[in-house]
Each structure stands twice: as C-alpha cells, then as structure tokens.
Amino acid sequence: MSILASRYLEGIKALMDRMATEEMVALDQAAAIMADAIAAGQAIFAFGCTHSSLPIQDLVYRAGGLMLINPIYGPGIASLDVHPATMSSAIERLDGYAKALLDTHPIKAGDVLILVSVSGRNAVPVELAQLAQERGIRVIGVTSRAYTDAFASRHKSGKKMYEFAEVVLDNKADPGDASLEAEGVPQKFCPVSGVTSTAILQALVAATVEALLERGITPPVFLAANVDGSEEYNARMFAANKHRIFYM
C-alpha cells in the first residue's frame, strides 16, 4: 500500500474536518448573500484564474448543481487553455485585465461574484475584487489565508483579494499549496486546493439551497440529464430564470 497516497488522503480528510468546523459561520454568511440575491432576482457570477478556474467549472451546468452560477472565463487564464502554459501566469499579473472582464459581462450592482484565488496576490483577482466592491457587487472570496498572508501582493494597491471580499472562505491550503514531502524530492508535491476549494464551494451550494428552502423558495437545481423527465424539468427552471442565466 502506498504510504504517500495514504498520507495525502489523510491530509485531505484533516483539512475537510477543519473546514467543517472553522468555516461554518462564513459559509452561512455567504449562503445568506447568495439567497438574498436569488430572492431579489439578481445574478450570480464566478471567476478563477487557471487552476482556480477548475473549482468554478465544477459548479456550472452539472447534475445536482445550482443553475444560476454564471462562469466568467478570462481568455488566456480560463484554465490552462493557452500555449505555452506559462503565458497564463503572466496574464494573471496584468493590470487592467480585470476591468475588461467586468466591463464585458452583464454583472451589475446587487449581483454576487464568487472569486477563487488560492494565493490571492496576483493583479487580476485582486483588481476584480476591488472593482466589484466599488460597483456594489457582493464579493465572496475563496482563498488560503495561510498562503495569502505568507507573501506580498502583486497588485499596485498592495492588497490581497480577500481584503475586498464581503465574506472569505478559507480552503486551508498551505503556502505553496503542495502538501507532501519525501526524501529525494527537493520540493513539496501534491497540491490540495483543487480538492478543498471544490468542496467548500459545493458546501456553499448546499448552504444556499438550505437558506432558500427556509425562505420558501424552490432552489433552481439541475436534474441529471440521464434521469427521465429531466429535459422538461430543466427547461421549466431555465424559463423561470432566463433573465439571470447567461452561459446558455
């Protein structure tokens, strides 16, 4: 049996346990923001750069998922969709890129923007959070507080993404993200943030569904495409929410 595989999985479980106790207040606060927006007919958007885009994509257009998550895909940083891949690291440090993203999407005051950035230090996520806050958009940040506190900001404001967020969800990744060490390997390996960011965002969906039910609102959730009756059900839910779904 692989010792390192077991160590990785045990480490992930420990981080999940920490999130289940340490992040519940923030999850409830973030879910209230989401439920407020949904009840008011507002829209929900979500963004992350490169690997931080992957937890966002896990929320979008999938069985059992909340229909209302509109992804913002930045060219060159929407996952690793450029060649060479190193270009994505340069793009996420560009000043002004975030303004172009916001200006070209139908996001407005009162809407919600979920931002994922593990380090929270690069220009694009910091600027996006700052501009969103200035425009009256409610920002929910997902980051690693340990990671972001360990390094200086790369944004001209000198601030980190979480400083512009109304609520912050901590994915508990260590600085540098990688979690394992072994003799013969000069650096840590096997990152955790992809797992923990995805988990905490799905927990946010769960808390939002609960908050909507408490208000007597039917949560707009996808029925799996391979379940009988799904096309009709999903079509009805789309029709009821077409004014705030922009990814179709």
Task: Describe the SSE topology.
Elements: H1 3-22, H2 24-39, E1 44-48, H3 53-57, E2 69-71, H4 86-91, H5 97-103, E3 112-116, H6 123-134, E4 138-143, H7 145-150, E5 167-170, E6 178-180, E7 189-191, H8 193-214, H9 230-240
Parallel strand pairs: 1-2, 1-3, 3-4, 4-5
Antiparallel strand pairs: 6-7
Helix pairs in contact: 1-8, 2-8, 5-6
Q: TL;DR?
A:
This protein has 248 residues and is of the alpha/beta class. The protein is built from nine helices and seven strands, in the order H-H-E-H-E-H-H-E-H-E-H-E-E-E-H-H.
| Poorly predicted segments | none
**Averaging pLDDT over every residue, what do you get?**
96
DSSP summary: helix tally? 9
Supply the CATH superfamily name. Glucose-6-phosphate isomerase like protein, domain 1
Number of strands: 7
Q: Give the end-to-end Cα distance, rounded to a whole number of Å.
A: 45 Å
Helix-strand makeup class: alpha/beta
SSE run? HHEHEHHEHEHEEEHH
Gross CATH architecture: 3-Layer(aba) Sandwich
* Strand order across the largest sheet: 2-1-3-4-5
Largest sheet, described in full?
Answer: 5 strands, parallel
Gross geometry: globular
Number of domains: 1
CATH fold topology: Rossmann fold
Sheet-strand content, in percent, reads 5-15%
